[in-house]
Amino acid sequence: MPKEGSPPVSRSRIVSLYLPLWPTDRIRKRLGPDAPAPETPLALVGREGRRRVVLSVDLAARKLGLRPGTPVAKAQALYPDLVLMDADPEGDRLGLEKLALWFQHRIAPIVAVNAPDGLVLDTTGADHLHGGELPMLKDMVHRMAGAGFCARAVVADTWGAAHALARYGRLAI
After folding, report:
1. Cα separation of 80 and 46, whole Å?
2. Which helix or strand (DSSP H or E) is residue 26 part of?
């Protein structure tokens, strides 16, 4: 318990910014007008050992039922309209690092990459600079959407709680 007259002890506030479609959103943004239409299912492929498998899918492919880990031959047979492109895990990682720096300059002084699909921000004591926690989270998600990226954000006392809620909870912004 703090002594009388001492400043209040602030608890940690950690934001998990989850980018569920990061690889496919990034490819679409990079391709610009040459990118497949949003309603066209897109899968990014790579290798797991000797097998060629789907590593990432966009929202249209998810709606069809396609999931990462599906062998490419099976995906092509089940979904003939599927657009396949090579995955770029290194580009995805570098893109997250650039995004982390951007958020570090604008939102919070401590930001880390949470590969392969997100960022972690320590916003302890910084939320008031953005109008409070809820406006800050809404602004983060809005900025990502404006740049062409699907995002969910949650703030919690710990990284684990924020991470889990952003990916699996219903409370995410």
Report:
1. 19
2. helix 22-31
What is the full DSSP assignment across 143-170? HHHHTT---EEEEESSHHHHHHHHHH-S
45 in Cβ contact with 84 (< 8 Å): yes
The alpha helices in 1-156, defined as continuous H runs, are 22-31, 59-64, 72-78, 89-106, 133-146
d(CA 19, CA 93): 12
Structure tokens at 55: 């590593």
Where are the chain's structural domains? 14-22+90-168, 23-87
- What are the φ/ψ torsions at residue 116 (nearest 5 degrees)? -100, 5
Q: Domain spanning 14-22+90-168 has what CATH number?
A: 3.30.70
| CATH no. for 23-87 | 3.40.1170.60
Token reading at 46: 């790579």
C-alpha 94: how far from chain center: 14
pTM check: above 0.85 = yes
Helices and strands, counts by H and E, the chain: 6, 7
Q: What is the pLDDT of residues 100-132, one digit of tens each?
A: 999 999 999 999 999 999 999 999 878 777 777
